[in-house]
Amino acid sequence: MAHIDYYFATFSPNVYLAGTRMEAVAAKHGASVTYKPLDLMGLFAATGGVPPGQRHESRQEYRLQEMRRQAAKVDLPINLQPMFFPTNPAPSSYALIAAQKAGGGNLGALTFALARACWAEERNIAEDDVIRAALEGAGFDGDLVNSGLLSGAEVYARNLEEAITAGAFGAPFYIVDGSERFWGQDRIDDLDTYLSSLT
Question: CB neighbours (10 Å) of residue 148?
Fold first, then answer.
């Protein structure tokens, strides 16, 4: 059975645009998934990337156009300039790490809910009440928002190190069985094709 390491940031617009399509592909092929939220700005800094706000104006403009087009393609509403972006992704990431450890809910739904809160609902995913609502909506205990903060911080930092070592440099980033890499929500069909080739 294939395994997918999923490296991402909870406030990434492309994680939002991915929706739960990767999870559907994984389920189709019986692949397991480990969710690895990380510090995306740290990943950019370590791998030669540039944060959106520091890119040349033409790149910034193109990014917004592409986000609008991709949102239309996957039929998701999007606010191209959300009120709470950028925000601190660490609290939502720690909660997601705690949820993965606790089990009992839907991690794909949780990841999508957090990203949707930022990009479609004008909510700040650094706030406990927003994270709690996402947890509960995905079938997890809302109190996980305050659970395992120290261990969450340790895993969050380790995820960044692992991502760099594994060859990830953006989000979402899917790595199958430690070697086959797919970058971007627009590569989920390619992930599906690759997993099909393994069976």
Answer: 17
Q: Per residue of the chain (199 residues), what is the pLDDT tens digit?
A: 999 999 999 999 999 999 999 999 999 999 999 999 999 999 999 999 999 999 999 999 999 999 999 999 999 999 999 999 999 999 999 999 999 999 999 999 999 999 999 999 999 999 999 999 999 999 999 999 998 889 999 999 999 999 999 999 999 999 999 999 999 999 999 999 999 999 7
Q: Which domains does the chain have, with CATH numbers?
A: 3-198 (3.40.30.10)
3-state secondary structure 137-186: HCCCCHHHHHCCHHHHHHHHHHHHHHHHHHCCCCCCEEEECCCEEEECHH
Report pTM. Answer: 0.96
